Amino acid sequence: MSKLFFYTRDQFFNFKSDQMSAGFEFLSMSKLISSQKIESLEVSQQYYVDISSIVSFVKYDDSQLFNFEQLFNSFGENISFICDKVYEKDIKYIFRYIFDEFSDVEVERDEITDEVQEISVKESSSVKKITDLDDAELDLFFSKFDEGLYGHECFKEEFKELVTSFRVFNKLGEHKILSLFLMGDSGIGKTEVARTIHKALGSQSKLAKISFGNYSSHDALNSLIGSPRGYIGSDGGELLKRVNESDVGLILIDEFEKANNAVFNYFLDILENGKIINSQADEYDANGYIIVFTSNITKENFTSKISPELRSRFDYKGVFNLLTDEDKKKFVRFRVNQIITKYYQLISEDVPDKLYDTIISEINVSQFKNMRDLNKKIKDTFVANIKP
Ligand SMILES: Nc1ncnc2c1ncn2[C@@H]1O[C@H](COP(=O)(O)OP(=O)(O)OP(=O)(O)O)[C@@H](O)[C@H]1O
Ligand SMILES: [Mg+2]
């Protein structure tokens, strides 16, 4: 068993230069991932090995813990261990059989400090959140939301109640993030829910969207939160990048069922604590955010795929059904109008008489089970009818 020293971000460089003048060498644990590498260290040299980079790995994927416990046994007496203090709580528990003593390094703080943090993560207060709206703004939000999303009336009712309660309990500090888990067939408006919230919050930026369909399930967590400091190509991960690019408090997680257990646990943490932390230990306060998760899984698979702890943390879980023919017709009328107006303004004022009525009469909405197909039908019918 050995001792572990914690340093804070603003102590590290002073600490390192002090200790190097005293003859120590510094290494990241990622350089020593096998016991041969550990054996190749000089016995007469004193080393500090920084284990910060392995914390996020082991925290979300504890299948590696066994290997690490074994690996630590091969270290000699000439090695001391250090770690970024942000990991203190996690590491004291995760590595409880490796370290039996912990203390903080004793050193003055570095001079250039906070600037670094400010660049990497933007202030969450500059972002427009549902919890920030006043009553008039909230009414406007709901009317834009209702207008933008066709059908799904029950969901809309429930969403209104959820938001109302969220705004209260968020202020009381009891409800950090409003989470919606939407299931159902393709092309019926699950992702559209997030797009509509995004517009209704008045965003001028891109929607913060992560799609697990784009990641291989194997290293989904790394793509999401970046690889740990010290690894080749280490970065801050896609999640914080997307969140930083957006001006509203909304995150869309598409095809969530394609992620893996490490990712599920990671989101469990976010929903619980309201904080997004990446592998570089950048921390973002997501208090007041809405997170929309979408998935094509059935109700039955939902129970087998997603752990009960995570399931119980979603504020809304629901299966979206196909829109009624009446709602599909509303959608068609809106789209046809929109297309004709744009065409008239941007391309030509020479529009055939009764174009709108013709297109509407040629589309039988009951044939369509996917709104994408219906949208394509609208486009095709439009093009066929403006041909001379
Ligand atoms: N209820 C709806 N209101 C308005 N537009 C809708 C609605 N449902 C679907 N659409 C339209 O259909 C397109 C497809 O819907 P959406 O992207 O939400 O599908 P999805 O349910 O997320 O499907 P997938 O599982 O394939 O991702 C959207 O771009 C949107 O134009
Ligand atoms: Mg979708």
From TrEMBL:
InterPro entries: AAA+_ATPase, ATPase_AAA_core, ClpA/B, ClpA_ClpB, P-loop_NTPase. The keyword tRNA processing does not apply. GO terms for cellular component: cytoplasm. Residues 176-324 form the AAA+ ATPase domain. Keywords: ATP-binding, Hydrolase, Nucleotide-binding, Protease. GO terms for biological process: cellular response to heat; proteolysis. GO terms for molecular function: ATP binding; ATP hydrolysis activity; peptidase activity. It holds the Pfam family AAA_2. This is ATP-dependent Clp protease ATP-binding subunit.
